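S1.2 Input.
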Amino acid sequence: MKLKELKIGEKGRIVRFEKGDPEYRRRLMMLGATPGTPFEVVRIAPLGDPIEIRVRGSFVSVRRDEALLLEVEPLH
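S1.3 Output.
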């Protein structure tokens, strides 16, 4: 499933990054969003862009087109 499919308050784990901009992937990894890392969706802007997630205690804003590159699995 994709990050954009989760709702506010839902938790998930990053499975992998789809092919795309390597700069974007590097930026997320520097912020602690690496495959296997759990996260929580904190906020979604009214038009769905950006999505804010909490990863390892940090808040990371992800644009809608970038969220399409994140493969995640929901955590219950």
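S1.4 Remarks. The helical segments are 22-30, 64-67.
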